[in-house]
Amino acid sequence: NGNAGFQQVLERLESDPVCQRLSLKSFLILPFQRITRLKLLLQNILKRTHPGSEEEVQATQAYDALEKLIKDCNENVQRMKSTEELIYLSQKIEFECKIFPLISQSRRLVKCGELTALDFNSLSPKWKVTTRPIYLHLFNDCLLLSRPKE
């Protein structure tokens, strides 16, 4: 989105009749869709092969290899989503000192959300309670508390 030249080229390519008005995203998703279709095809082949035959052995090997490939693809997609979340979060959060590297290969965001912090003022004659929003970001290796910029 930040590169205007790339956006213009992308829009021109997507509007080309050869692309059939499909977006870049659809072309990126297409290989994953084909892999899952292959899995369904192999399941049907396995149903129609005779148990113990050479065809069944080969189809089972192909199915197992395809299952491993799909599992690896899903894991890589999750890893990329996690990295994208970390990049987005690091752009939103401003640290007072940059000693904490938010983006890491092993770090992933587990849960995040807004909470309300209660502050009790014990110096006043009446216990006064004030509230302020804080955000919790739970990673697999640490917990980060943040607050909105004032």
From TrEMBL:
One Pfam family of this chain: RhoGEF
Superkingdom as given in the UniProt entry: Eukaryota
Residue ranges constituting the DH domain according to the UniProt record: 1-76
UniProt-recorded Gene Ontology molecular function terms: guanyl-nucleotide exchange factor activity
Gene3D superfamilies: Dbl homology (DH) domain, Pleckstrin-homology domain (PH domain)/Phosphotyrosine-binding domain (PTB)
Gene Ontology biological-process annotations: intracellular signal transduction
SUPFAM superfamilies to which the protein is assigned, alphabetical: DBL homology domain (DH-domain), PH domain-like
A GO cellular-component term linked to this record: cytoplasm
Name of the molecule in the record: ARHG5 factor
GN (gene name): Arhgef5
